[in-house]
Write a sequence for this structure.
C-alpha cells in the first residue's frame, strides 16, 4: 500500500494519502480544504541516522556559531536545522511560522534607519 504526497492547487498545503487499493483507486482530496485539485509531488525520504549521531551533531559548538537568540531570522534558521537533524516533520504550519519569523525585520536590522 503506497503513500503518496500531494500539493493542493487551491490552498497550497501538502497532504499525505495512503492508497489502500491500486486496482480500485479513489480520488484523493486535500485534508485541509477538501479540494480534489491536487498535484502529486515527490515524497520526502528518511535517511536512517542513530539518535546518538543526531544528538552529537546538534551538540557540536560550531553549529551555534551563527545563532543570535535576539534575531528571529537566526532562530528560524536554527529551528529548521534542528528539525532536519532530528528527522522530525513538524508539518506545514510550523514551516510557515518559521518562514514568517525569518521574514520579519530583525531588531538588529538597520536598513530602516534614517
Amino acid at each position: 500500500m503506497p503513500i503518496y504526497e500531494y500539493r493542493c492547487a487551491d490552498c497550497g498545503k501538502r497532504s499525505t494519502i495512503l492508497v489502500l487499493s491500486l486496482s480500485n483507486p479513489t480520488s484523493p482530496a486535500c485534508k485541509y480544504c477538501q479540494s480534489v485539485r491536487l498535484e502529486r509531488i515527490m515524497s520526502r525520504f528518511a535517511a536512517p541516522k542513530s539518535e546518538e549521531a543526531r544528538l552529537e551533531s546538534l551538540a557540536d559548538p560550531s553549529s551555534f556559531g551563527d545563532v543570535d537568540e535576539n534575531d528571529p531570522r537566526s532562530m528560524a534558521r536554527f529551528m529548521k536545522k534542528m528539525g532536519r537533524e532530528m528527522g522530525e516533520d513538524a508539518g506545514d504550519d510550523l514551516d510557515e511560522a518559521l518562514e514568517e519569523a525569518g521574514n520579519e525585520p530583525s531588531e538588529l536590522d538597520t536598513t530602516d534607519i534614517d
Remarks:
- The two ends are 60 Å apart (CA to CA).
- The chain is about 30% helix and 15% strand.
- Residues 51-103 form one domain.
- Residues 1 and 49 are 25 Å apart (CA to CA).
